[in-house]
Amino acid sequence: FLFVPAVEVKIEVVIPEKERSKEEMSPNGKASPLVYKVNGTARHYHLEEHPIASNPYHNPKDVVEASVCHVKDLENGQMREVDLGCGKALLIKENGEFYAMGHKCPHYGAPLVKGVLSKGRVRCPWHGACFNISTGDIEDFPGLDSLPRFQVKIEKEKVYIRASKQALQTQRRTKMMAKCISLSNYNLSSTNVLIIGAGAAGLVCAETLRQEGFSDRIVMCTMDRHLPYDRPKLSKSMDSHPEQIALRPKEFFRAYDIEVLTEMQVAAVDIKNKTAVFKDGFKMEYNKLLIATGNTPKALSCKGKEVENVFNIRTPEDANRVVKLATSKNVVIVGASFLGMEVAAYLTERAHSVSVVELEEVPFKKFFGERVGRAVMKMFENNRVKFYMQTEVSELREQEGKLKEVVLKSGKVLRADVCVVGIGAVPATGFLKQSGINIDSKGFIVVNKMMQTNIPGVFAAGDAVTFPLALRNNKKVNVPHWQMAHMHGRIAALNMLAHGMEISTVPYLWTAMFGKSIRYAGHGEGFDDVVIQGDLDELKFVAFYTKSDEVVAVASMNYDPIVSKVAEVLAAGRTIRKRDVE
């Protein structure tokens, strides 16, 4: 913003790692050890700092103080991005008070000044993560880190911000975490907390336990060969290598004693003896269990389904291999799903041809409705993607073992060097069949608002569960999306520690194709009408999904921050009527 000498505001920023909340401080200023009951024995531990944190007060050169505006420059409810010379901060005024914190969302770097300020928190305009303006703490997801919070002081009608230069540069803060006490005492085959699955739900659960001061053993196991990674990127930027999309570096897991067993598959859970049995025969006892296994992609069931170069995108290796094979070749995508369409969009510039085969008449019809689906389809056709709708694959033909042609039920034969299958997924819960854990007819694990299953001490989270959605009168739903998996993991962890926390978040998701994003919030299942504002042909619109008289979901393209605004209204428990948006 323009600097006018007559109206000077000063902002002060402080590294948040060293800030202690009042409850954690003992009178002498040192963090007091907290006591947790684990298996009936009291354990003491100290909260650990972020290992890479530096204290600004040891190094005065790290602190910058700047005057950023006059107190009257900002109205209540306004936000402004301000420059402190060596980095920027977000200045906020709410209820007459000034707050300052990082200006970029730690998830993908969205400018928070373009987000939505409401009741003491800022919601990101891109993917809906929420940050508390007093603490900088993350309160809704996606992303793992919080924001640095900076000191603000008012002197002679001017606003000053004081900040650590390091915090201004990193624009993120990892919350303080406990460490495990005396790992050496542990029996290898028993753990306090066992987490099956290392996606967003599993990782957030482990991190939340440590943030809350839990200092006993945590083991995560995964069939993957990698530490937790940013799975949405597999179809959105398919060239990414595992280390580029890792959610946390190796050192992080070491620093906070979160053990990850890779390439380990659980074959059964014995709830009576609180034991997980692995495929290789290894057994591990647990005290608390989180099942966050996600889902398994559906495979084609047609003739020739076992030929080479037919892929489900499940791992970074799958994505990388498809890009390599598709370069200058013919690609067929089966299924106009989020995954299928994102892969199609990504490959258009690399492949010789891209064709999409889909059973419905329009992509995303059930999710976004026919009109939005058609607008998206047109965008793809303008980028030379060919659609074969209302048909399916009857045969995959090979030459020397490798895919050569895809035959459709309509009789059409498509040349194909590589095929990507995106026809949906089923919950990865087969190993629980005889366990006694309640599973519905579709294979989803049934949990309550605290992510608890019917078995005490057993929790479930992420794509494999159905849970009561507050937004839709506690109807049991499955929401297989990245943000929701994060929140499930957090709620499960808090309830392992008996916090009695219920889930009430608003689902938020996005899809990215050809450099454009569709954002979506709410739960539109069963919508009976769509109210569209803006211009579908120009791909600048907002669509409100209604059921009887109520708005149950919203989607937009090039219309920020409308989806985040609606999410905030719904999160506050308010109803939006159809007439309000018409």
TrEMBL record:
GO cellular component: mitochondrion
Subcellular location: Mitochondrion
Rieske domain boundaries: 66-161
GO biological process, alphabetically ordered: execution phase of apoptosis
DNA-binding in keyword set: no
Domain of life: Eukaryota
InterPro entries listed in its UniProt record: FAD-oxidoreductase/Apoptosis, FAD/NAD-bd_sf, FAD/NAD-binding_dom, FAD/NAD-linked_Rdtase_dimer_sf, Reductase_C, Rieske_2Fe-2S, Rieske_2Fe-2S_sf
Full protein name: Apoptosis-inducing factor 3
GO molecular function terms attached to this record: 2 iron, 2 sulfur cluster binding; metal ion binding; oxidoreductase activity, acting on NAD(P)H
Function: Induces apoptosis through a caspase dependent pathway. Reduces mitochondrial membrane potential.
Similarity field: Belongs to the FAD-dependent oxidoreductase family.
Membrane is among the record's keywords: no
UniProt lineage: Eukaryota, Metazoa, Chordata, Craniata, Vertebrata
Keywords: 2Fe-2S, Apoptosis, Electron transport, FAD, Flavoprotein, Iron, Iron-sulfur, Metal-binding, Mitochondrion, Oxidoreductase, Transport
Native organism: Casuarius casuarius (Southern cassowary)
